[in-house]
Amino acid sequence: MEFCNASDAITPNQSMIDGETLVSLDQRFELGFFSPGKSTNRYLGIWCKNVPGAILWVANRNKPITDSFGVLSISKNGTLFLHNQMRSVIWFSSASRISESPVVQLLDTGNLVITDKSSTSPESYIWQSFDFPTDTRLPGMKLGHGLNDNLDRYLVSWKSADDPSPGDFTYRIDNYGLPQLVIFMGSMKKFRSGPWNGLRFSGLPIFVSPFSPIFVFHEDKLYYGYDPYNRSVTTRLTLDPSGLLERYRLNETRMEWSLLYSVPRDQCDNFGLCGPNGICRIYRTPMCECLNGFIPKSQEEWEMLDWSSGCARRMPVGCQGEEGFLKVEGVKLPDFSNFWLNKSMNLKECKAECLKNCSCMAYANSDITGGGSGCLMWFRDLIDIREFDDQDSRQDIYIRLAASELKSIHDSNKKKRLVITVAVSVISGMLILGLLLWFIIWKKGSQRKGEEWELPLFDLATIATATNNFSTANVLGVGGFGPVYKVR
């Protein structure tokens, strides 16, 4: 049997031993044996050639080879085998069909594929590593299921930097409701992206991307991926052993990975931080607040910055009397614990449907494209709402409240606006007085020196008039600050 030497492919009459590698034709990716961190165990994996420190895929992550005598070969019917020194099978591929002339090849995308010599199109792949991701996602790799098979593609973190066996965290598409991307720790949600809003997953960071997102959501298909605009740019998305999802870009000049972003980004990204019916605003202190119309279930716990118990309605709703909706702008929509979805309704129809259903607690558009469409309704507590600043992530939700609660909120907001406007006007008047005082002192000083000056932007008569008006208890809204208010 022949051994491969710096080739990109193996045929049934060849094999690859520890110390040899397959290299993609563009010299970007490499397949071979490695030992992670401080471990002496050997694994078959893929990495970027000449770039240390990042393994992109591992074949035998559950069963390491304990010596340096591993052998990779492909059978005549198209099954890939990894043997140890004793010829025991450590790992093998699960081919979808048998091939008469199979070949295993490392592609320029970083995808290891088994195909037939007579056809190299993606549709003819017998097996591919992209269908069995480990902790890293590359461009062209899809997460999800239903691609004419029963596979569920998702990321699983390493146990540690020294051990690539499956760790505690997974990153996958959660399809309970509208599809969203979720980091799980075991069965518990740690982070969720928010639902697909027609353009993107609203809770993921926005950056200038060299990739085009692909999202398919049908009855028999659900997957998410991205294709590169420019294949010369290499990025990876990795779920690390601590549950942090990190996006890196390869710096071709320094030949090292540069971190672009990571999620969770901040405390507000932690799932359900503010408890039921709470909202997280990262730029406020404290960052957790109850939604308008709600109060803490345990004031004592909230004062200790323990928000897990969440909030309860101040006044009950559910066809109790006159009711309406409060618009909460620019948020990540709540999680889907108990919901209803209709993709054909508009927002007005959605409001009417929610209002006549006594159990409906809130509603929103499911899609933000084209001015908004679709109807989402929630029937229980609202979990994991956070406020966003960037426009592309913003969605609005309408929360059901009693009419008296809505009036109270309206009156409170009106008073706040009045106070802010008056405060700004008073500050404006004080600035005018200060400017006048400075001018008088400066003028007298100049006259003593025999100098005559005029201010370029103001004349003394204008300032005197403004000062006189202010002194008779008129507060001026000048400089674009707003209307004039009479202070009594």
From TrEMBL:
Keywords: Disulfide bond, Glycoprotein, Membrane, Phosphoprotein, Receptor, Signal, Transmembrane, Transmembrane helix. SMART domains: B_lectin, PAN_AP. The chain crosses the membrane at residues 418-441. CDD domains: B_lectin, PAN_AP_plant. Involved in sporophytic self-incompatibility system (the inability of flowering plants to achieve self-fertilization). Residues 319-402 form the Apple domain. Residues 7-127 form the Bulb-type lectin domain. GO terms for biological process: recognition of pollen. This is Apple domain-containing protein. InterPro entries: Bulb-type_lectin_dom, Bulb-type_lectin_dom_sf, Pan_app, S_locus_glycoprot_dom, SLSG/EP1.
